[in-house]
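Hi all, a correction to my earlier message: I attached the wrong file for PTS N,N'-diacetylchitobiose transporter subunit IIA. Here's the right sequence:
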Amino acid sequence: MLDLEEAVMGIIVNAGQSRSLCFEALRHARAGQFSEADALLLQATEAGKAAHAVQTKLIEADEGEGKTKMTLVMVHAQDHLMTSILCRELATELVEIYRRQAN
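and the right structure:
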């Protein structure tokens, strides 16, 4: 079984990193630095995958039977993950808009 506190922090840290990289990518895209923006979005995707992998392990350990203790910090971690996923999707679209405007 996963250490719950470690797992929750893994989600929060990786999701937070993903979100931060997305905003950095947007700053680069706004400046017309699209290769940098693309690289940052790729890094954001990898950080998001790491957070999602931890979430998947928690779901598997729970087996749909409520085995995993649900805490406020667990809900907070899930919120971070979902926010980072939405941020990455929106940032990807905005980088494309900046790219089209630059041409």
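Sorry for the mix-up. Residues 4-102 form a domain with the Methane Monooxygenase Hydroxylase; Chain G, domain 1 fold (CATH 1.20.58.80).
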